[in-house]
Amino acid sequence: MPGIGVRYDLTTRENRRLSVIAHRDGDRTLSAYRKEDPDECALSTTLTAGEAEALVGVLMPSHHSPNLLSTTELGLVAERIELSSTSYWNGRVLGETRMRTETGASIVAVLRRAEAIPSPTPDFRLAGGDELIVIGTREGVETAAAILGRA
After folding, report:
1. Residues 6+ apart with CB under 8 A from 110
2. Hey, what's the signal peptide range on this chain (predicted)?
3. Is 25 exposed, middle or buried (0-12, 13-18, 19+ CB in 10 A)?
4. Which of 108, 114, 130, 151 is the most buried (most CB within 10 A)?
5. Secondary structure class of 11 (helix, strand, coil)
6. What digits encode the pLDDT tens for the residues 82-108?
7. Gap between the Cα atoms of 58 and 41, Å rounded
8. What is the mean pLDDT of residues 38-44?
9. Residue 132's domain is classified under what CATH number?
10. Are residues 90 and 34 in the same domain?
11. DSSP 3-state assignment of 137?
């Protein structure tokens, strides 16, 4: 598109047509077309470069994990980590893990069977099958998962 930018077209597996115009100023125009009439535009919105980048981050997160609960612009993630029954920490108290000191991440809740235990104290006894909700930086949470997975 001379003088405007580059147009990219995509047809989904549901036979829906989408297009993105990458403007030379960094903005993006996202358009979706009607399934019944692929020439009729059903939605068109212009995104700033920052908004387009945020959309890409949602569609293709750099660290995707099925256990990832949420992430923030501050660089913090919340993730669910299951404690194996063969883990070194099975039957030990939470304080022994030195989780916050070693990783900077915090265990903010434990899910055990149908019960949620918010803000577990250092004397809380861990058990195989517990799902720990850990919040911290991506690196801190990954280190926490490695520590908790220790056999």
Report:
1. 116, 117, 120, 124, 126, 130, 131, 132, 133
2. none
3. exposed
4. 130
5. strand
6. 999 999 999 999 999 999 999 999 999
7. 24
8. 89
9. 3.30.70.1450
10. no
11. strand
